[in-house]
Amino acid sequence: MTCYCESTNVFSFSTLHNRNASGLWYSEIDYERRTCSRDDHTDCTPPQTTRRIPPITTDRVRTVLDEPPAFGYELFPTVGSFYKHHTITRTWEDARYTCEQEGAHLAIINSEEEARTLAEIYKRSPAIRNAFWDFAFIGFHDLYDEGSHVTIFGEPLHTLGFGRIWAHGDFNNLGQNDVYSGEDCGAISRNGGLDDLWCDGLQSFFCEKELEPYPPPSDVDYSAGAFRSLQDEIKPREGTRPRQRPGPGYELFDKVGYYKFHTTGTTWENARHICHLEGGHLAIINSPAEAMILTSIFKRVPHLKMVKNNNFALIGFHDLYVEGDFRTIYGEPLAVQGYNNWRRGAPNNAGKSNIDPGEDCGSISREGLLDDIDCRNNYAFFCEQELVV
After folding, report:
1. How many CA atoms, within 13 angstroms, populate the side-chain half-sphere of residue 153?
2. Nearest to residue 76, comparing CAs of 101, 107, 34?
3. How many angstroms separate the CA atoms of 300 and 315, rounded?
4. pLDDT digits (tens, 9 = 90+) for 291-340
5. N or C terminus of the chain with fewer C-beta within 10 Å?
């Protein structure tokens, strides 16, 4: 049991492990609230919270009760999160997916105290079987711009308030050459230092669930390749009011929607962010008629600027979560959207290797057919705004 004294209240926490109706284990947080006494202030040390965790309140505790983490998570109130060290080894991407399935995410370190917390948890575990190195995966990478390390939510790593960064004093992207991308996925050592490892190496990993939802980044420089699309966008509610003022440069196609073709190339993630800033989203094709509209716009511009390939443009789908499981930016299966016509031989995930993710982002060709392409390369892209808002 952990005691936390806030102002005139004491909160006492304890973890309860139960089985649900299906027989699966889950954890709940039980708590007791009472008035602080002088002894409580003596025995109960207020936590040193990180920059993103406000003081604990009854409403926040109630949020935790409504969405308990999966079995095996341990609460550290002074840091403001639950943590779980998975000692069964996974690749970085599989680790990220496992955490999300448990209602959590790969751990993100925001303070020295948080690093010490993970190191203390790590030290409880004996040597990890089948691990390539004595490191555990956590939630940062530089997959989209070598040396520009960002979290799984797209925040630059250097802005998170953790000063004791690299284990052994540096990061070296070991193994990088013309074929292999090298070490691009983040990990923590038993001593709390960070390092870059091969993403497809097998490591233990840390999952984290905050007492409050992790806030989205507000000042990310997406031109540097920051990658936030590991989480779906929130799909707007079905609109009823006709859009009176489309964004600048958007063209109306009667009974279908507003579209804008960006002819200067950028990465898929940056394109997604640009569309969002314009009040729209990367285009999602819902019918053959809509595909014909995009190809008609495409044909107007025979020569694109700063692109990897002149014959493709980015649109709003991907298989970043599970290879071959193509989803829209809203997390909906591509197969049920009303248009699923692929180029011959596509999708093929070209370039996939033990340490390279291959082609995981969606595009449309000049002929109006779908293809999977490398998320890291620059392409033109289509944004879309709905007829009603």
Report:
1. 17
2. 107
3. 18
4. 999 999 999 999 999 999 999 999 999 988 778 899 999 889 999 999 99
5. N
Sheet strands (E) in 72-184: 74-76, 81-90, 105-106, 135-141, 150-151
d(CA 133, CA 196): 11
CA–CA gap between residue 306 and residue 265 (Å, rounded): 5
Amino acid in the structure at residue 93: E
CA dist., res. 74 & res. 144, Å (int): 32
Q: How far apart are CA 369 and CA 386, in angstroms?
A: 22
Cβ–Cβ < 8 Å for 27, 71 = yes
For tokens 């006492």, name the residue: 12
pLDDT in tens, 121-150: 999 888 888 888 889 999 998 887 777 788
For the cut 80, the answer to whether the pLDDT of residue 189 exceeds it is yes
Smallest CA-to-CA distance from 149 within 261, 256, 258, 226 is with 226
With contact defined as beta carbons under 8 Å apart, do 250 and 297 qualify?
Answer: no
pTM of the model: 0.47
103: left (phi over 0), alpha (psi -120 to 50) or beta: left
Residue that has been written with the tokens 């089985």 in this structure: 19
